Amino acid sequence: MDSIRLRPLTRLFLALFLFFVSVGSSFAQGTAADPSKAGVAPGATAAAAPAAAAGATTGDPAAIAAGDALFKGNCAQCHAVNEVVVGPALAGITKRRPMSWIIPWIKNSSKLVASGDEYAVKIYNQYQKQQMPSFQLSDAEITSIIAYTTSQEGVGAPAAKVDGGAATADGGGAVAGEEADGGKSMNILLIVLVVVLIVLVVTLVIIANIMKDVLRGRKDLDGRDREVMEQRFDFSKIYKSTAVRAIVGVVFVLAVLYESVQGAMGVGLQQGYQPTQPIAFSHKLHAGENQINCAYCHTSVYKSKSANIPSPNICMNCHSQIKTESPEIKKIYRAIERKQPIQWVRIHNLPDLAYFNHSQHTQVGGIECQTCHGPIQNMEVVYQYSPLTMGWCINCHRETPLNTKGNGYYDNLVKLHDTENGAVPFTVSSNGGTECSKCHY
Ligand code: HEC
Ligand code: HEC
Ligand code: HEC
Ligand code: HEC
Ligand code: HEC
Ligand code: HEC
User: CA 79, CA 102: separation in Å to the nearest integer?
Assistant: First the structure.
């Protein structure tokens, strides 16, 4: 064998190979150049590390998606990630503050300000002493919100727009490091991996072809060897294979089944239901900004089974004086003149087969409205926050300890429970809160 003769196909692959190698290496350079382009010193990764340790920058897509929804529901009216709205831009917050500060701040910022926390007081004064509302969010929910805001840093806004005041106050570390964050570099890594894979495949094909060419030159091959050598990859074989057909069929059937089960589970679920109301009444304005107590309007919520919807008379306590010229308020006057109720659209509605009592939960159990109804005080238009399924009721009954303090009625029951299995708390379900007849007539 004197020289290797390259066939046209091999030449084509060789050309492709060279192309991918050059593309691949320029990508690799791109990644290396990227951080310096963003002005990040080598220290930036070190700076990002404590934030990740705090659990805030976990790239977990589920947490980010949950944080996205929570952020839009609770925070978006006052905050954006990359610009100042009512409150500061949240970009770089994990670099400014540890999670151990962020969580209590979001739960109750005024408490932190009142405690004299230096940073809290500073930012409170900086934003004209506007009070950020308190949120009944769990630590995990707050962590997911921060994971979401961190993932949005630098998206859709020039870096220079990032809140000058708060961001630079703590050493300007906020802008740096943003571009180096999780999402982007993951993507680049993926692209590089794909390119490497393609290069590998092309290399293998080239090697195979060259070896074939070499073999072709040899005379000592018998018929079967030649057959193996000349074998061509045959797509129709894959297509005809029963195994492949069976697998594709099973996957298809499973996908259809999964979709229909998901669909069936959702039948009758009203979570997120947000009808348009006849008057543009805003809980955000009344319960949020003007801090009117829920029970001022929903007068029976602590006393009886149902929370009532206020009659127009209650509105008139204020609106006989306030905003009397507003067209929306005139609708209240019209209802009163015509002696017709305002036709509010009902949002929460359990089927008749279930029994639910507000006073049992709000007065006796001491549960906040927001636990079941979400951040009503931030809702412009009310929507159904919880699923209101049986599983939802039961889960909470299983997990929530019964409020037995100072209630003599429970003393013996608790004693009995503690001697039998003191390790588990005395929950609503320990007291029979998961018995069918408690909730079903
Ligand atoms: C009604 C408006 C409002 C809402 C809603 C709101 N905030 Fe704030 N937030 C503020 C204001 C104003 C400040 C500035 C401090 C102050 O004045 O108390 C602030 C400050 C902050 C800070 C400190 C920022 C920094 O740069 O140090 C964080 C973190 C924060 N908010 C997170 C949140 C999160 C998370 C939510 C949603 C769960 C939320 N906020 C909802 C108004 C709001
Ligand atoms: C100024 C009176 C007023 C105050 C204060 C008020 N609400 Fe309401 N609420 C209404 C009116 C009117 C409706 C019916 C229209 C609507 O759905 O927006 C309503 C509807 C609701 C609904 C939906 C009812 C349904 O149809 O299922 C819930 C839940 C609710 N309020 C909870 C609260 C909570 C929690 C608070 C306190 C944070 C509160 N409200 C404070 C007047 C008030
Ligand atoms: C405790 C006092 C109080 C009660 C009760 C009350 N409101 Fe209001 N309402 C206010 C205040 C304060 C404003 C804000 C006025 C402003 O923006 O200057 C307002 C604003 C409004 C607006 C916005 C008007 C506009 O055009 O900007 C509507 C609509 C409204 N209320 C409807 C209602 C309805 C319906 C009820 C009865 C279910 C009700 N309010 C009960 C105090 C009250
Ligand atoms: C344990 C969960 C839970 C808590 C806590 C709770 N609610 Fe409800 N709320 C519900 C459910 C479930 C319904 C639907 C009831 C039905 O259809 O019979 C409802 C319905 C309502 C309605 C519509 C009218 C009605 O009674 O059907 C209003 C208004 C309301 N809630 C206000 C409040 C207010 C205000 C608070 C706090 C003081 C509160 N809720 C606390 C679960 C809760
Ligand atoms: C956020 C938690 C939570 C949710 C959600 C919840 N409950 Fe409860 N429920 C409680 C607590 C706590 C008590 C015990 C109150 C007490 O007696 O101290 C209770 C008590 C009850 C009781 C009385 C039980 C007894 O032993 O006498 C009934 C009935 C009940 N709930 C029905 C429901 C129904 C129906 C739903 C769903 C629509 C529901 N609950 C959703 C927390 C919850
Ligand atoms: C804590 C309250 C609670 C307890 C305890 C409870 N349920 Fe329910 N159940 C509900 C609620 C609320 C619904 C309505 C849910 C919905 O509309 O999705 C419901 C719905 C149902 C339905 C569906 C009815 C329909 O038409 O869709 C059945 C069946 C049912 N329950 C059976 C039971 C049985 C059997 C038990 C005892 C093992 C039980 N439930 C215990 C609250 C409860």
Answer: 15
Residue of 348, 355, 402 best suited for mutating to test ligand 4, as the one with most atoms within 8 Å of CB: 348
Helix (H, G, I), strand (E, B) or coil at 160: helix
Residue 296 has pLDDT above 90, yes or no: yes
Please tell me the distance between residue 396's alpha carbon and the centre of ligand 5 in angstroms. 8
**What is the domain partition of the chain in residue ranges?**
8-32+185-232, 43-179, 237-266, 283-439
| pTM of the complete model | 0.60
Mean pLDDT computed over every residue of the chain:
79
What's the mean pLDDT in 200-215? 89
For ligand 1, pick from 83, 115, 132 the residue to mutate: most ligand atoms within 8 Å of CB.
132
297 CA to centre of ligand 2 in angstroms? 7
**Nearest atom within ligand 6 for CA of residue 434:** 5
Over residues 286-291, the mean pLDDT reads 92
- Evaluate: CB of 54 within 6 angstroms of ligand 1: no
Burial 393-421 (b: 16+ CB within 10 A, else e): beebbeebebeeeeeeebeeebeebeeee
43-179, what's its fold?
Cytochrome Bc1 Complex; Chain D, domain 2 (1.10.760)
Sole residue written with tokens 């409170």: 124
pLDDT tens digits, one per residue of 52-64:
334 444 568 888 8
Mutation test residue for ligand 3: of 315, 332, 376, 381, the one with most atoms within 8 Å of CB: 315
Alpha-carbon gap, residue 221 to 351, rounded angstroms: 81
69-83, 166-180, 313-327, 397-411: the lowest-pLDDT one: 166-180
pLDDT tens-digit map of 102-150: 999 999 888 888 888 899 988 888 887 778 888 888 999 999 999 999 8
Instruction: Using CB atoms within 10 Å of the CB of residue 344, give its burial: 0 to 12 exposed, 13 to 18 middle, 19+ buried.
Output: middle
For ligand 4, atom 28: residue with the closest CA: 307
